[in-house]
Here is the input.
Amino acid sequence: MLEPKNNDVLPAIPGKRYFTIGEVSDLCGVKPHVLRYWEQEFPSLKPVKRRGNRRYYQRQDVIVIRQIRSLLYEQGFTIGGARNKLAGEEARTDTTQSQQIVRQVRMELEDMLKILRR
Here is the structure.
């Protein structure tokens, strides 16, 4: 496993759809029991559970785990601080996406209005 001082050396994420907990452990440089603990602490981390309660992580989960790892090990956040930081980023992303959708709908409505006025 990677030590906290060696955080810069993480392998590239392969182009797979699902990853086992062992694969994610190797990709992110944290042990499986830490991943299971983080699932309890971070609501945004929800791997798919299948037969026998086996966890299967998606690419987005791996990215979130790497963000959590960076916040905790590199930037010195506490668990609560990292949770708040991630929640704030998600809220900003949701707001930006909502604004883009509203702009798109408005443009489409204006186009429809132009057509109706002809």
In short: Helices lie at 21-28, 32-41, 59-74, 79-117.
